[in-house]
Amino acid sequence: MMKKLMVYLDEDMHEDLRALAFRKKTTMAALVRYALDKTFEDELDVIAAERALEEAARDPSSTMSWEEYKALRASRDVRAAS
Would the pTM of this model clear 0.70, i.e. be above it? Predict the structure, then answer.
């Protein structure tokens, strides 16, 4: 689900972003999302991993053991080799 965020840009930045979006046949919002993702990719990955660990700690039934993971991985590797 997408959430709305209002960002204020000066006129020149807004116009340049609009022109870039037109040239790339995309939206200004898509360019901003891409820039944020590329600029903060590692930090955002850490935050997402921390959130996943917190969720797993709250509800361990949604996780699998190391042994279960290895067995699942082994069965996938066998099917992929066939």
Answer: no
